[in-house]
Design a protein that fits this description.
Helix content is 50%, strand content 17%. The protein is of the alpha+beta class. The chain folds into three domains: 3-73 and 252-268, no CATH class; 75-249, no CATH class; 271-429, Yope Regulator, Chain: A. Strands 6, 7, 8, 9, 10, 11 and 12 form a seven-stranded antiparallel beta sheet that branches. Helix 3 (48-69) packs antiparallel against helix 9 (228-248), helix 6 packs antiparallel against helix 8 (211-222) and helix 11 (264-289) crosses helix 13 (397-429). The longest helix is centred in the last third of the chain and has 33 residues, at 397-429. It is rod-shaped, with a radius of gyration of 34 Å.
Amino acid sequence: MSFMEKTRETLSALEQLKDQLNGIANREILETERMLHSLMVDAVNIQRSELSENATRLRSLAEDVVSIQKKEFSLMKVFGIENYELAHSSFLAWLLDPLGDHGLGSQFAYKFICQATSKIKEFDLTGVDFRNLCVDREISGDESRLDIRMRDPLGSFLCVIENKILSKEGTDQTNRLYRDYHNVSSKELFVFLTLDEKAKPVNSNFTPITYKEVLSILRSLSEESVNPNTKFLIRHYINTLERLIMSENYEGFSERTKLYYRYQKYIDEVRKAFDQDRQLLLSTLEEEVKRRQWWDDKFWRMDRTGGDITIWKNLWYLTEHQGVYIELYLHKSQPAFSLYIYGEPSEFSIKFGPVFKRLLDEENSSRLTDAYTKTFMRGVSRFVEREIPLSLTEKDQVQKILSSLDEMVQIFEKTIDRSIEEFRKSSSRV
């Protein structure tokens, strides 16, 4: 099949899909259809260079999806708070509190602060009492409201954390926080914690820390000897962060690609079920074709390859790899099937086509309906074709296909027979 034919088939498939979905009222299904429609149209025009550019990243994402699907359950997901900054701030504040009932002591606070200060030149943590840090949440200042605050009892160390999950920095937010809490302690640390690795705080005194770095700290803690309840909660939080971080990796791709990866598991399940149903339909058609009144094993032959069932008469098979055939093609991209009368190879089709067209016009033009399209163009192997949509709610798809095949045989069989005979005679005279 040529590129142009594939393009026409794709566009035709899209139009059929659109017609099927127009009557559906559900807004989410309509929105998905629009995305898929756009994806299919774009796919025709995407250059190979663009595909190659994204190939490595797509493979990496696919591996991430498979890995994370195996552990997709988490408490935050169950409670529907995976994307809530307040929920993340509360959990992190609990871990950062050395007096918390998690049993970690100051381990998480120490590793978190060390990760942040490692990015600051000559930040001295000497004298900071990590074991007795006080942790507060949602503290209001003159101009701002902070997410998490850590300070030692002596007031010599202060850490202010601005937490971002999906939201961006508010207007002048880090500047307002800095003005409220700068010069409160002799050692001050301002942290901008974000899911987006590209996000930068407006105020340069804030040190960016990503959730990917937090994830690394949590993974190291999950191996520590902590109480089972804490290990359970950390493991679930790790699962949550892995999914959120993976979704951030989508940013270089279109909304359609994000949609696919978000629902990949379900799409693959539907595709697998569709392929199974498609193969079952083809197997049933194979059996039923041989039960048609016109079928006779002495004269007719049939072959099935992939989604194609090819039927021909012994008379139509001139030499090896040369002849005329009826092809029944069940589409993958749309609920439809096509019937073709074609010749191969193309060298044979070019010579045979005019003979078949002339006899068809002379003998059968009155029997042809608008359902059939004649494609007698130079170099085109298909002489006649008919495309028939299949309703997704139709019960007997097999009978509909077989009835169309019966009609095609009834209209064209004798004309093909005579065309083959005339072609043989003309060829023998040359």
